[in-house]
Amino acid sequence: MIEHPVRVYKSDENLAREDQLAWKIAQVAVDPVEVSAEVTDMIINRVIDNASVAAASLTRRPVVSARSQALSHPRSTGGAGANVFGEDAATRVSPEWAAWANGVAVRELDYHDTFLAAEYSHPGDNIPAIVAVAQHVGAERGLTGRDLVRGIATGYEIQVDLVKAISLHAHKIDHVAHLGPSAAAGIGTLLGLPAETIFQAVGQALHTTTATRQSRKGEISSWKAHAPAFAGKMAVEAVDRAMRGETSPTPIYEGEDGVIAWLLDGPTAAYTVPLPAAGEAKRAILDTYTKEHSAEYQAQAWIDLARKLHAEHPEATDPAHVESVVIHTSHHTHYVIGSGANDPQKYDPQASRETLDHSIPYIFTVALQDGSWHHVDSYAPERAQRADTVALWHKTSTVEDAEWTRRYHSLDIAEKAFGGRVVITLTDGSTIVDEIAVADAHPLGARPFGRAEYVAKFRALASDVLEPAEIERFLALAERLPELTADEIGQLTIVAKPGLLAATPLPTGLF
């Protein structure tokens, strides 16, 4: 990896194009280096993972809404159009709208992969936009599964590298500001576009996807699922404009009035962004990890610890026996999904699913009482409003622990941690103390996810919405990803059981 210094330049300093971060990202995207077998296998896993959580969300309101918008924009000119999850594979829409609908379906349940460093991210959000473009122009451009794999590898690489170096949330900018550039770069690799075109697309994608973090604060709305899908849609449109010869604000990162100067660390900012050297394999996807549970990633390990404590200490599940539950954890967990956020909504039994998904006091309480976690049942209003749950939930708080904060930010994968220590004080004065560093499904966890676990997750989440034959068809296709023809890429979707989607009324809007 090459460590690239990035800072703000005054306009009269005339920063050369080849020294701009967007250009260096474009150089990574055009590098013809092959994707390793290990990375290819993980890309297949994440394509399956995305389909799993998309299947489970097909009838949820935000997904139905996004799908209805996409279906109002049928196949555009220039290609065959792209698939929409749930619909018959012959139904094609304009690729930017497929990226939108499928992106919302993937993100709705907060249940797919993650990478956390200086910033946080869900790099699987790159996949819907890249696949949509591959489906639209695959036959025309002679694309194969190998091209799709290369595009996805680039998307993951760029997003992960940006996340390692540049914090957005510190300035209340939503994490999808790293997704727009990464998806644009991934599409550039897929299509074999020249560096100049990718450079312009990256700049446009960044410029149009910077937004505030209010979508993940207080009363969290359905926009949480839409935000990354919007970034993917903007990336597709940015590539289209750049291919037509249109340019972007330059330098987009380093300019005197650019993103760093006014949205991030300011005019005196300095970052170091790691990017692969020419000829160096893109391996960033191997640093990422998926979710066993449908919840914010920092909650994954806590669900696993709560399940363990449920079995070992049943007395801790009854609020009548508990004085307090204090979770000692990282700065990020405390201030984003813990009591340090000072969001009363995180303790509100009437809160939205999206809000409860970002409340570690709620999540830990329910997992502790139930000894399990379910992507629907654990968030049901009747579950959230249960009297004994509310009582125990309101006795649960978080505090920042310096050591867990250090481990959270460690660049050493072996010690990087997303958990902490819990102290449960009982009414008799005794305490229960336990800790966990990483989730069970993490590569260093008790039960790391491999292909078998990804496939099992897909089967479990798809069983109610896809026919058995459709489950097998998709899995067989996905596991052959690098070998797919352009026509087969056009079948890389999931088709709902007959009548399932028709039973859900489509909302109406402008289109």
3D architecture notes:
Residues 20-269 form the MmgE/PrpD N-terminal domain. It catalyses: (2S,3S)-2-methylcitrate = 2-methyl-cis-aconitate + H2O. Pfam families: MmgE_PrpD_C, MmgE_PrpD_N. With 511 residues, the chain is of the alpha+beta class. The protein folds into 2 domains: 2-287, 2-methylcitrate dehydratase PrpD (Orthogonal Bundle), CATH 1.10.4100; 297-436, 60s Ribosomal Protein L30, Chain: A (2-Layer Sandwich). The protein is built from 20 helices and 8 strands. The strands form 3 sheets. The chain has a 4-stranded mixed beta sheet. A two-stranded antiparallel ribbon has the order 1-4. A two-stranded antiparallel ribbon has the order 2-3. A hairpin with a 3-residue loop joins strand 2 and strand 3. Helix 7 runs antiparallel to helix 8 (195-207). The chain is globular. The mean pLDDT is 96.
Topology:
Blueprint: E1 2-7, H1 21-30, H2 37-56, H3 61-71, H4 95-107, E2 115-116, E3 120-121, H5 126-141, H6 145-165, H7 179-191, H8 195-207, H9 223-243, H10 259-263, E4 270-275, H11 300-312, E5 322-329, H12 331-337, H13 353-356, H14 360-370, H15 381-384, H16 387-393, E6 396-400, H17 402-409, E7 420-426, E8 431-436, H18 451-462, H19 468-478, H20 486-489
Parallel strand pairs: 5-6
Antiparallel strand pairs: 1-4, 2-3, 5-7, 7-8
Helix pairs in contact: 1-7, 1-8, 2-4, 2-18, 3-4, 4-5, 4-9, 5-6, 5-7, 5-9, 6-7, 7-8, 7-9, 8-9, 11-14, 14-16
Summarize the structure.
The chain has 511 residues and is α+β, with helices and mostly antiparallel strands. The protein has helices spanning 21-30, 37-56, 61-71, 95-107, 126-141, 145-165, 179-191, 195-207, 223-243, 259-263, 300-312, 331-337, 353-356, 360-370, 381-384, 387-393, 402-409, 451-462, 468-478, 486-489, and strands spanning 2-7, 115-116, 120-121, 270-275, 322-329, 396-400, 420-426, 431-436. The protein folds into 2 domains: 2-287, 2-methylcitrate dehydratase PrpD (Orthogonal Bundle), CATH 1.10.4100.10; 297-436, 2-Layer Sandwich (60s Ribosomal Protein L30, Chain: A), CATH 3.30.1330.
